[in-house]
Design goal:
This protein folds into 2 domains: 9-70, no CATH class; 74-312, MetI-like fold (Orthogonal Bundle), CATH 1.10.3720.10. It is 71% helix and 2% strand. The protein contains 16 helices and 2 strands. It has helices spanning 9-26, 28-46, 64-67, 74-81, 85-103, 105-115, 120-131, 138-148, 155-162, 174-201, 206-214, 219-243, 251-257, 263-266, 269-279, 283-312; strands spanning 57-60, 68-70. The protein starts with 8 loop residues before the first helix and ends in a 5-residue tail after the last helix.
Length: 317
């Protein structure tokens, strides 16, 4: 007669612990490589989560986080009932949506074109030229824009005048702010964004191209049926990640390009949080606004991830 003895919790945990020790002894070098990154994220990304509670308190530095008075959703109500809130949200959303609309497809188009360049030297030269703007700091870029777009001495307005047009004060007119901001971002980052797609295209088996050419496929059909399917999964991943910044954006650049004349369109949530938090020391109020931004970003990432998963079976998780 046989008897079935079920595993006790203690025996199950001992087996799991034995597996962990076996993996640690076998792959300890790999865990050491992972350890610095793990420590970095714990210290700088998880420990600070403790401070989120100041968004629900009337934080006083002398009292500390625990000693400050709990006010609940008071700061959120103050923000959403203020006359500036919807203007700030609209400016932030429009700026980031337009930036995503232009910045997302251009690296894909550039990588497809670069992949078709026959000359290796010309390809390397072109890649170098389009990568260099990425290494220009935001402060330097802002200074360049102020010089180039100067209404009297900027070469852009000199060119406009030479063609018979009327010079524009680009940095002081609100209708030009988004164009300047997004156009400079496309110039600065599109080339750098091609790296990940070119890396994916280099993994394509060259025999596929040879077979397609033998079958009479044109270059356009090769791009459609070979190149695009190769980079679509990576493009979907990048779309999911970029959707998380829909309520954030580049606050530093926005602040540097902001002038008294373009505040109607350049006054975004990031600039407002910087001004109210550091200049006016309203830490709890700005923490509440920042928490609102992060919640919206999280919702956007989850939503876009679900949509891409349903539409193309491609997702991050």
């Amino acid at each position: 007669m046989s008897t079935n003895v079920s595993a006790t919790p203690n025996s199950t945990s001992s087996v799991k612990w034995a597996r962990v020790k076996r993996r640690l002894s076998r792959d300890w070098q790999l865990y050491i490589f992972v350890l610095p990154g793990l420590i970095y994220y714990i210290v700088f990304h998880y420990f600070p989560l403790y401070g989120i509670q100041i968004a629900f308190k009337d934080y006083k530095a002398v009292l500390g986080i625990n000693g400050s008075e709990w006010v609940g959703l008071e700061h959120f109500k103050t923000f959403f009932t203020s006359y500036m809130s919807w203007t700030l949200i609209k400016n932030t959303l429009l700026l980031n949506l337009y930036a995503l609309l232009w910045s997302f497809p251009l690296p894909i188009i550039l990588s497809l074109l670069l992949n078709r360049v026959g000359s290796a030297k010309f390809k390397k030269f072109t890649q170098t030229v389009i990568y260099v703007p990425h290494f220009v700091s935001t402060v330097v870029l802002a200074g360049m824009l102020y010089i180039f777009l100067d209404p009297t001495n900027g070469f852009v307005n000199i060119l406009i005048s030479a063609l018979g047009g009327t010079p524009q004060y680009f940095m002081a007119e609100p209708q030009w702010f988004r164009t300047v901001f997004i156009g400079s971002a496309v110039w600065q980052n599109s080339g750098w964004g091609t790296i990940i797609y070119i890396a994916a295209l280099t993994s394509v088996d060259q025999e596929l191209y040879e077979s397609a050419r033998i079958d009479g496929a044109s270059i356009l059909k090769q791009i459609i049926y070979i190149d695009l399917p190769t980079i679509i999964p990576m493009a979907m991943m990048m779309l999911i990640l970029n959707s998380g910044s829909i309520m954030n954006g580049n606050m530093q650049k926005t602040l540097l390009l902001q002038t008294a004349g373009n505040k109607a369109t350049s006054n975004t949530i990031g600039v407002y949080v910087y001004t109210m938090g550091l200049t006016n020391a309203q830490f709890s109020y700005t923490a509440a606004i920042g928490l609102f931004q992060n919640v919206i970003s999280f919702i956007m990432v989850m939503t876009v991830n679900k949509i891409t998963k349903e539409a193309s079976s491609i997702s991050m998780f």
